[in-house]
Design a protein that fits this description.
Elements: H1 11-22, H2 28-48, H3 68-72, H4 76-88, H5 94-114, H6 141-149, H7 156-169, H8 173-177, E1 189-193, E2 199-203, H9 206-216, H10 243-256, H11 264-278, H12 283-290, H13 295-298, H14 300-314
Antiparallel strand pairs: 1-2
Helix pairs in contact: 1-2, 2-5, 4-5, 7-9, 7-11, 11-14
């Protein structure tokens, strides 16, 4: 598992991150996001309050000296000033600012409830930016087939298996790179460790099992470090493949197919949409496959179909024909 770097952080922030790790069982990615957001928050506050020379580079501002007294002095208005800075100076969109709100809220909740350092939690009423609702972008069935048929080259078996798993299992990028080959069981099921280290089981169809068998027949055995020996997908250097490498692989084939503007995460949307469109998969089942915590997150795929039905209706050549109300003489 990736090591979390606590160096240079205020002691209370370190304690908070350890708590979220070992007690709340948050994923490494989530903890890194908490750390990044809180670091940015405290650097802003020291700059905002004139506690560092104006000539100092923002990223080099030292926050290790932020103590309990400093934290107790933080107000709700400080948090809103920070969000304004993130929007206007750092060009953070709604989703990025909403994540920072979530990090600040979680930290101050920990200070008030778990540590009981604060008599009152000033961030309890911190509002989050309203997020724009948009339907997820996905590949059509034809585009998906085109993408699969584009795979070639020295590592075609590995690359093909990666794309097949994305399109058939709806995996997150972090889930795919963390797969071990023993996560695939004899009963053709895949054990996936998702957000918050929650495990779920996905049944692998014939396409997945065929791609997996072809890849395993050429997957390197010699020259793989002990630390990466169990990794399912290996890089060109026989190490566990990194998220950046997987992104490069997928982008290369998408570009080859003329499908620019899509991302690795869009393959997850594609899997979910195709299952719902063509497999008549119940939304509750889809929720379990994707590892969503809330049903509302999964229901976005029902809205995709609703939107398609609406567009199909509007595309009817009779859509704009209206009754002529004029009376004939």
């Amino acid at each position: 598992m990736k090591h979390i770097d606590y160096s240079g952080l205020p002691s209370l922030v370190r304690d908070f991150l350890v708590y979220m790790d070992v007690i709340k069982n948050k994923s490494t990615l989530t903890i890194e996001e908490y750390s990044s957001d809180l670091c940015l928050f405290f650097k802003f506050l020291k700059m905002f309050r004139g506690l560092v020379p104006s000539s100092d580079e923002f990223d080099s501002i030292n926050i290790s000296d932020v103590d309990e007294t400093f934290i107790k002095s933080i107000t709700l208005n400080d948090a809103y000033a920070f969000l304004s800075y993130c929007k206007n100076e750092r060009d953070n969109q709604e989703a990025a600012r909403a994540r920072k709100v979530s990090s600040i809220r979680a930290f101050f909740k920990y200070l008030s409830l778990q540590r009981q350092i604060l008599d009152e939690n000033p961030m309890q009423v911190l509002d989050s930016p309203k997020l724009k609702k948009s339907l997820p972008k996905y590949l059509t069935l034809e585009e998906s087939l085109k993408l699969l048929n584009s795979v070639d080259g020295k590592y075609k078996e590995r690359d093909y298996c990666i794309i097949v798993f994305f399109l058939n299992c709806g995996l997150r990028l972090s889930e795919l790179v963390s797969l071990n080959y023993n996560d695939i069981r004899d009963d053709h099921t895949l054990r996936v460790t998702g957000k918050g280290n929650k495990e779920r089981t996905i049944y692998l169809n014939d396409a997945c099992m065929s791609a997996y068998a072809q890849y395993m027949s050429v997957r390197p055995v010699d020259g793989v470090p002990v630390s990466d020996r169990n990794a399912l997908f290996l890089s060109n250097r026989n190490r566990r493949i990194s998220p950046k490498t997987v992104q490069h692989i997928v982008y290369t084939y998408l570009e080859k197919c003329g499908l620019e503007g899509y991302s690795v995460h869009k393959l997850r949307h594609t899997a979910a949409t195709l299952m719902y469109q063509h497999g008549n998969v119940d939304v509750l089942v889809l929720k379990d496959i994707l590892g969503h915590e809330n049903l509302g997150t999964t229901e976005i795929y029902t809205h995709i179909i609703d939107e398609q039905l609406k567009k199909a209706s509007e595309a009817n050549p009779l859509a704009n024909v209206k009754m002529n109300n004029s009376n004939e003489d």
